[in-house]
Amino acid sequence: MGGYIVKPHTVVQVVIPPAIEKRDNIYGISVVTPQQMWLAGNYGKILLSTDSGKSWVRQTTPTQNHLQDISAWDETNAVAVGNGGIILITDNAGATWTEVEAPKSEIANKLISIHTYENGEAWAVGELGMILLSKDRGKSWTRMREEEDVIMNDLFKLDDNNIFVVGEYGRLFRSRDGGKTWNDRYTESPSSLTAIDFHTAENGIIVGLDGVILATHDAGETWSLIGDKVSGISEHLMDVQWSGQIQQWVAVGNKGKWIKLSGDLDKFYPNQLSKTDLSSHTELAFVEGGFITVGANVGFMDYGSDQFTELGK
Amino acid sequence: MLEKFSRLCVENRKIVLTLVLVFTAILTFFAQRIEVKTVFEDLQPATHPYISVHERFKGTFGGTNIITFMIEAKEGDIFQMPVLEKAQKITKGLLKIDAINEFQIYSLAGKKLKEVRASTEGIESRPYMWPNLPKSELEIEQLKQSVLRNPLVYGPYVSEDLKSTLVTVDFFDDLLDYNLAYEQAYDLINRVKDDTVEIRLVGNPILYGWVNHFLPETMDLVLIALAIFLSMLFIINRTWRGTILPLLSAAISAIWALGVAQISGINFDPLVVVIAMLITARAVSHSVQMITRFHEEIDNVADGEELSSKDAAKRTLKDLLRPGLLGIATDAGCVAVVAISPIPLLQKLVVLAIVWVSTVAISSVILTPVLLSWVKKPKAYAHGLNLDVLLIRPFLNVCVNIVATKFRYLVVGIAAVIFIVCGTYSLNLKVGDANPGSPILWPEATYNQDSATINDQFPGADRMFVVVGGAHRNQAKDVEVLDTMLRFQRYMEAQEEIGGTLSIADILPAVNMTLREGSFRYSELGQNSLMNGELMYMFENASEPGDLDRFVDTDRSNAAVTLYFTDRQGTTIRTAIARINQFIADNPQVKDAEIHLAGGVIGVIAAVNEVILSGQIQSIALALFILVMMCIVVYKSSIAGMFFMVPVVLSNLVTFAFMAWQNIGMNINTVPVAALGIGLGVDYALYICDRIKSEYQLGKDPLEAISISLHCAGRGVLVTAVVLIASICVWLFSSLRFQAEMGMLIALWLTVSAACALFLMPALAYIFKPRFMFGDMERQAMIVAGSDDLDSGFMNQPVGQDA
Q1: CB B140 within 8 A of CB B80
Q2: Could you tell me if A86 and A65 are in contact, meaning their C-beta atoms sit under 8 angstroms apart?
Q3: Does any CB of chain A come closer than 8 Å to the CB of residue B649?
Q4: pLDDT mean over A286-311
Q5: Residue A17 lies in a domain
Q6: Helix-strand-coil percent breakdown of chain B, rounded to 5?
Q7: Which of B755, B740, B716, B730 is closest to B282 using CA atoms?
């Protein structure tokens, strides 16, 4: 037949997902230079920014596991850890990420925190009392403590000998010999401890669930609990760091809460990132003029304007 | 045979008339009782795989009749007593609406939306403000905090700016009456509304309620169109018979069609009024052709002689029976093709349309000449304003002159240009809705405004669900299945028009996190199926039976992923479906679980669009084919088939181009109009060309034959086209955008096909002199001069004067 068929338009749009998707949970951040920073999050997601967080590029990783933390030695060398005990390293600024072998437990293996130090040293902690050490930029890993049913949440290396690890049920682990032996104790806190930091050799802080804050003024020999009545915060705190810029401690946590604490830990400024943002955050990192915090979203808190802006949208 | 039949009809005119009257009387009884309503389920192409998924799960995962109330605080946010009260009143008021599914009410003030929290005894879940509203400012603040904490509520049910909240409810499909639901829902709003809140309302039942709301206006428009139509006919035809007979034809065929439809249990969709108008236009056209020819027969008798009305009627019927019936047959044949579609709405519509078109054969083609045979003073006129002399004949002379001069080549050239331009442009025609909001209503209509606002503030009012699962029990608890669902949701949400997605997999990470002391690092699925089963069990324990129904079926083998769409545009839906298929291709099978498309309003529309895309477009091509075949059979010439395709293709291309230009999508409502338009495009050309042919056979030269045809059949074409277009213009003022647009389309069709019949077809006939018109054996015998120089002789003849 000589019929004429009008072919209707069947356009299918090309959909390019944003670097940080609505559903993304970003658990870890590492700021290398004022411009360069990495994020690590769910489904093996690693994002790199070279413009102070204005734009993000997704890097290819060989895993779908959720990544919990990321840390960089320098602009080209970095390591990321996450669920299932996965450890990824790069020596080319993330052009390629490679999975490396590491000791694992037969029960649970989530790695929660990773810290990098000079000379290619790195410490990772996680479930089942896992404390891992690498001295060759993450290529090989050694287990530094026997298996135990406790979740290790964070680690702080005060100097080559003194290392602190905080964990579940208010437990604090300490090594005085560079990690060879550990003693542990229960702090005054019944709640799990999530993060630890020092701003001088003597003065340090630990935060935890239910707004727990522990302070030391004697290089970690004694820790005293600051109650939520005093601090004014009872929500979970997930990360704490010393901001040289404002000479205060800054902590972030669940439900959009954050708090500033004076160096002497006698003044507390609990706050809300924004009135309608009740999303939880797991880590923070300082950048020019404020800090970036990651979790259910990624946002920049501007000290000057006191405004929280989401990044990567 | 034609002669025998027409003699038979006119001689037994009393019997014919009695039969018609009896049938009309009987069918009037039934026609009065026809049900005017829309049944959305009629839309569903039963054989399409999406529809079986939809039918199987719509009871719990969400049907096509969900309605959404949006309660918006005029000042401040919703967390103030007056606004919360309104939300509660609306929620409670829903129970008084007929056919409501009370287990599918989701509202802050309902018992299905719950907050989940951990306590010393485990997981606890409780409604936000059911059964009681918060009692103090403190409790309101607590309510606000618990809303903000729950991503399943903050976003989907409370807007991000906290200024509005949604109440959604589903109906029992089989009990639902759109009009009643519409009235009761707006009643409820009017009772609750005051100056503290704005309440908006969308959903299919409401949309069709609005269409019904405009039914009285539609009837008014029909009456106005009728008045314009009658007065114009009276002015132009100058006789009562020329006015009343076309009206009678239209009325009788309408009554017959509606009567038969009622008997066969077909309801009359208010949106079908357009189709009714279109067919009525056919009835009128045929009748006017008869009357015009009758007058010509009377006028053509030499002075002194007398031709009885009876004989004139016989001649009219004999000569016009062929083009008339062929026109009707092509109309019916073309529209019948639409019934191939598995969509019940279209099938019913086709039955109605075929019956209706067929009745025109009796009500116009046969009855009009029969009634004309009773005319006593055929030469008398009712008034003195003779538009024939003033306008019609001069205009038709122009048509004849164009054929006679080189202008005929210009006409063909213009047609060719239009063909190419419109042909190219019509490639932009879209399947499905081409605009956000409902294409049935104007953008500024309340419904579309409400819909735009709701879709702007919330993830989207229109839903699609896909089912993930398989035959095994507890398949939906499998960690890989759940993980696939989450990845699927993330993948789908990248599309801008998908405002959000929801599934059981969204709940479990929250439960898991709660179990892990609220550590956000554990906001993830359990590590294995056992763990997820436990999480689900804990959640169920803390909730009431049925709380999980919108996420998983009872034996946990199938889970729903609900996608919220901010619009129903064809492109949006096609993109979503294509992406789902891409995801399935990338994740072929997850532990025996599969992803099944697709239910909910958007799922059904997707199925309809796919059916239209795959079937209806081809069926339009098939309709063209039927038309060609009919012409070939009747004129015993394949050239005839090609020849009559010209006006059809041209009018269709112009219309498609117009639709593309005006952003009118090819959807369930426009497809039947397009198919009918194909048949419509050829009717005028048939009358003109058939007359040229018979005059040529009587021994006239081609130009003379064309001139005679244009002044008789052409007059009929011109009159009906002008009168119908003038009446149809009334529709431009309809509150239903669909009717206004279809009115425009029909007017355009009439214009293009009339222009084709009056300018293009005579020009083509004269230029190409196709054998089926100018090559008959009878003619050969009648010609005295040698036939060899026939053509060249005519070419050089001076322009013929008005016959």
Answers
A1: yes
A2: yes
A3: yes
A4: 93
A5: no
A6: 65, 10, 25
A7: B716
pLDDT > 80? residue B675: no
Domain membership flag for residue A3: no
**Closest in B429, B496, B625 to A9, CB measured:** B429
Is the model's pLDDT at A10 over the cut of 70? no
Q: How many residue contacts between A and B have a Cβ separation below 8 Å?
A: 124
Sort out which chain A residues have CB atoms less than 8 A from B431's CB and list them.
8-10
Q: Residue B569: pLDDT above 80? A: yes
Count how many domains chain A has: 1
pLDDT tens figures, A31-59 = 999 999 999 999 999 999 999 999 999 99
Q: Please report, for the domain that includes residue A244, its CATH number.
A: 2.130.10.10
Residue A10 lies in a domain: no
Residue B535, SS3 per DSSP: helix
Number of neighbouring beta carbons within 10 Å of residue A247? 10
Is residue A38 included in any domain, yes or no? Answer: yes
pLDDT tens-digit profile of B605-617? 899 888 877 776 6
Nearest to A6 among B148, B161, B656 (CB): B656
In this predicted structure, what is the pLDDT of residue B788?
Answer: 44
DSSP 8-state symbol, B590: B
Pairing of strands A67-72, A78-82: antiparallel
Whether residue A194 and residue B653 make contact (CB cut-off 8 A), yes or no, is no
Q: Which of residues 142-201 of B touch A (CB under 8 A)?
A: 145, 148-149, 154, 160-162
How far is the C-alpha of B541 from the C-alpha of B518, rounded, in Å?
Answer: 19
What lies within 8 Å, CB to CB, of B696 at 6+ separation is B702, B705, B773, B774, B776, B779
How buried is A71 (Cβ within 10 angstroms: 0-12 exposed, 13-18 middle, 19+ buried)?
buried
Closest Cα to residue A4, out of B332, B429, B741? B429
Question: Model confidence over B242-298: pLDDT tens digits?
Answer: 889 999 999 999 999 999 999 988 888 887 787 888 788 888 888 988 998 888 888
What is the signed CA dihedral for B747, B751, B756, B759, rounded to 10 degrees?
Answer: 170
Instruction: Outline where DSSP puts E strands in A2-141.
Output: 26-31, 37-41, 45-49, 57-59, 67-72, 78-82, 87-90, 98-99, 111-117, 121-126, 130-134
**pTM, whole model, 2 decimals?**
0.84
Q: What is the pLDDT of residue B589?
A: 67
Q: Which amino acid type is present at position B711?
A: H
Let me know: does B726 contact B232? Beta carbons within 8 Å: yes
Closest by alpha carbon to A29, among A261, A255, A297? Answer: A297
Mean pLDDT of B75-97: 92
Asked if residues A270 and A232 have their Cβ atoms less than 8 Å apart, the reply is yes
% helix, strand, coil for chain A, step of 5: 5, 45, 50
Of B210, B182, B175, B177, the C-alpha closest to B35 is B177
Which residues 214-243 of chain B have a CB within 8 Å of chain A? none
Whole-number Å distance between alpha carbons of B717 and B754:
6
User: Per-residue pLDDT averaged across B709-727, rounded?
Assistant: 90
Q: Which helix (H) or strand (E) covers residue B58, if one does?
A: helix B49-61
Closest by CA position to A30, among listed A68, A57, A1, A59:
A68
A172: domain range? 26-310
8 Å CB contact between B369 and B716? no
Instruction: Search chain A and give the residue with CA nearest B654.
Output: A6
- Within 13 Å, how many C-alpha atoms sit on residue A206's CB side? 31
Name, in order, each residue with C-beta under 8 angstroms of B566's C-beta and a sequence gap of 6 or more: B436, B455, B456, B459, B460, B461, B462, B497, B498, B499
- Pick A1's closest partner by Cβ from B160, B428, B628: B628
Reported as half-sphere exposure (CB side, CA atoms, 13 A), residue A269 has a value of 11
pLDDT in tens, B390-431: 889 999 999 999 999 999 999 999 999 999 999 898 888 888
